[in-house]
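Handoff note, outgoing to incoming analyst
You'll be picking up this chain. Sequence as last confirmed:
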Amino acid sequence: MVVILLLMVGGIALTGWMQTTDAYWGTEWVEETLKHWIAIALHVVGVVHARLRHHESLVLAMINGRKRAPAGGDIL
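Most recent structure output, in case you need it:
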């Protein structure tokens, strides 16, 4: 989680820095699109990580509203 948060902050900082340069000043794709894609990519990585780590489909749980009960070895 910490690594993902650091990547998110780093991506936002990068796009913020890009907006201060002459090449990207006022460029809409840097201001909006790039930040959104960074957030989307990190969320997808988080869902895939949860799927591999806990052997559970979070997407399916969001669709049908059912999730398995935590097992003894699960981290709460």
